[in-house]
Amino acid sequence: MSAQQQAEEVCPATRPRRFYDCTLNEKLLYTSFLLLAGAAYLMAIAYLYTSFAGIDGKPGLSVEDVAENYYGNRSGTRLESALRGPMASYIDIEQRNHVVEWLKSGASESGYDSTIRPIFAKRCFGCHSAASGLSVPDFTTYAGIKPVANVDTGVSLHSLMKVSHIHLFGIGLVALSIGLIFRFALLPAWFQHTLTLLPFIAIFTDILAWFFTKWDPHYAYIVVIAGAVLGVAWAAQIGISLFQIWFLKCRVIPGK
Ligand code: HEC
Questions:
Q1: Which residue has the least CA distance to atom 23 on ligand 1?
Q2: Phi then psi for 48, rounded to 5 degrees?
Q3: What is the mean pLDDT of the chain?
Q4: Nearest of 245, 240, 222, 234 to residue 174 by alpha carbon
Q5: Residue 59: its pLDDT value, please?
Q6: Nearest residue CA, atom 15 of ligand 1?
Q7: Any residues with CB less than 8 A from the CB of 61 and at least 6 apart, and which?
Q8: Torsion on CA atoms 118, 119, 125, 130, rounded to nearest 10
Q9: Which atom of ligand 1 is nearest to the CA of 132?
Q10: pLDDT tens readout for residues 20-32
Q11: What angle do CA 181, 183, 189 make, to 5 degrees?
Q12: Which of 73, 123, 127, 134 for mutating ligand 1's site (highest number of atoms within 8 Å of CB)?
């Protein structure tokens, strides 16, 4: 007898467990967890919104914000955009051109000492120095100006690795927990299998796309789409589970 035949004989022909087979205690446990997970998800969305919205200088959350977070704004530095934006009134155009030239040529320390510092001393140190008492960057030293004079390349690879391993472990466990509950749902098999796999695929794609976005900002669309797929898949798993836990009744077929 082959191994497969053996297995067929030993395996009893049972139907899978459904929500209506669960004890009240299980139902309470699943319901509490699903509600908590739903609340946590909404909180995560609110947090994402507040930390990403407006990165690109425009209000609201957009794909550009996501792109700029990972890819950065490579066309310039924070110093240049400040001089063209909020700080424009403190400098005249000729001086601004000197600063921009210095930035484009690599923002060296010698250039700072010879041309930039004298301009800033007249125009900026009133506020941008420790003496001013304002909580704005101190530009009286090269070390102080350096962080706003570098090309803005977005989140560093190192912090991306940190955030992604935490997300892969953490969200993976949440997806597993929701999926373990959702397996009791009574649905067409293909639909249930798809919905079970979807969050894992979405999480993996989303996080992979962070790294791709660092390389090419167009991948920000994938980040947003994968995030949306995760949200829809979880909403469906949680919604269907909660509904079936409390409303789906076992239908007794007469004669069986
Ligand atoms: C009257 C005070 C004042 C003067 C003068 C001033 N700034 Fe500012 N600066 C601020 C304040 C306040 C902020 C922070 C608030 C903001 O970003 O609008 C700021 C922010 C900045 C930032 C953004 C810092 C960051 O972390 O992104 C840069 C760059 C900057 N200033 C450059 C300059 C330069 C260059 C000059 C001189 C040409 C200058 N500022 C003159 C008050 C001043």
A1: 82
A2: -55, -45
A3: 88
A4: 234
A5: 75
A6: 136
A7: 48, 49, 52, 53
A8: -50
A9: 2
A10: 999 999 999 999 9
A11: 155
A12: 127
